[in-house]
């Protein structure tokens, strides 16, 4: 944890040292890897088109680590992909935008639909062959792929699919969402989970979950129709009132402006509250 | 006075002063090293104190234990420390041992070839290539492993009946002993080659010429005179390579597999396809749990085992080199 804080501090220093216009503000964040692609796109749009004197530094060190950085003061905000836990005391969660966790198989796998119960059984090691999932498809052994405990995606999957039971020993826990996607692309018998931002590859097939496809338009605000849809949060220290005004303004912009909504959808997320143009 | 020194380097930079400054520098470095070792051991102590020697033994599922340790730190209940690291230690022994054994023999032959048999133009090319390979960051080897080697093993070498035979326990997807040993060998062999060939080259030419003049052929001379004389360098290179292999974390975290499973040679051929997780990658994969006090102690305990084995290795290397010094070179 200390190493991470140090790394953040060094990057922050580098950010401050960069030539910046007068009155420039640097906002330091860390956390969710799942939220990273969308957040980076939002930062870029904001820096270029809205407030040229605000700069962002975001270290994707995992949602749980990000919240701890906020608690310790190492970060001014954190990205987070799961709902608050008791261990997050002293922080405020703000709903930023939405994301769906897709269950992905290789394109060569004929399977189209999976139930939460089947996914649960696969990741608990109770179902080990594709023929047990759906007749007429693959008959090979399932290679379940997941994240290690450092990821917010892991926690979301644990809560939403596994009922907080630990994954079985035949689940290959990889260190990054990108590695999970890569493993599924390269293995016909694999199944993995990753956020919407990671979809769109030709070798990857997002499954329907309980009959509902994993698409941005199905993951509407309320009620959450797609079973594995979720909010992505921005976490602030205290009740959020101590945060710098530049950060509060950015969060309002991200939640409400049409431009931000457009940016979020382009980056693979789903805008939750943004006004339509 | 002081005519030997130009005035600007005169009394101000006297030998004594430089000596003292270097002395302080050396003491600082040694002090920092000691402080680091003490810090690691102090943090690690609770884990060893609770488990005793069974820390190194087998028993239960090591991943479940790590999970329970981490949870007990967050829930505020009494801390759990029970941890039996054998699967991780066994994995470290298998992967390091396998890679070092293969690398030792291949590096020895390659360096003998470069120094004694290759034409000059060839060794002029090979030498810098080997030096470059020895300095490639390990994460690059890890990437190549993930993108090329792991899918190749998973899709082409492992058969469906083999996968089905262990279904539900482990997945044979290419993240395996085979992948880990192969990539680790490629990683440490260049390091060994570059140290071995320095050693072989520093053998006194007179000894070689003497042997050749007595009518001993080239191959025998190389084996009996050159390699034998260069043994201290071979030991030094091997020790360095073992140290690098034991401590390798990022590359192995990417390709060795993620399960705290003990590969069993009795399983037959699938033994080499079985996933496992050595000690150093375990720290990388659980770094997020450092904030839970019992996990912190457990991870530092793993770190201290790595630290002590590194210290023990350099000690062994030093003793071995001392006893071989009578053969001459290096």
Largest sheet of chain B: none
Q: SSE order of chain B in H/E notation?
A: HHHHHHHHHHHHH
Total helices of chain B: the number is 13
Largest sheet of chain A: 9 strands, mixed
Describe the structure.
The complex is a heterodimer of chains A (277) and B (330). Chain A folds into two domains: 2-99 and 231-266, Periplasmic binding protein-like II (D-Maltodextrin-Binding Protein, domain 2); 100-218, D-Maltodextrin-Binding Protein, domain 2 (3-Layer(aba) Sandwich), CATH 3.40.190. Chain A is built from eight helices and eleven strands. Chain A has helices spanning 2-17, 36-50, 63-72, 116-123, 152-160, 177-186, 245-256, 258-266; strands at residues 25-31, 54-59, 77-80, 91-106, 113-114, 143-147, 172-174, 190-195, 204-206, 208-209, 229-237. In chain A, helix 2 links the parallel strand 1 (25-31) and strand 2 (54-59). The model of chain A has no long low-confidence stretch (mean pLDDT 84). The radius of gyration of chain B is 25 Å and the shape is globular. Chain B has helices at residues 15-51, 62-75, 86-117, 120-134, 138-157, 160-165, 177-201, 205-213, 218-229, 231-247, 250-255, 279-285, 293-324. In chain B, helix 4 crosses helix 7 and helix 5 (138-157) crosses helix 7 (177-201). Chain B has 330 residues and is an all-alpha fold. The mean pLDDT of chain B is 88. Chain B contains 13 helices and no strands. Chain B has a domain at 88-289 and 311-327: Orthogonal Bundle (MetI-like fold), CATH 1.10.3720.10. The interface between A and B is large, with 36 and 39 residues.
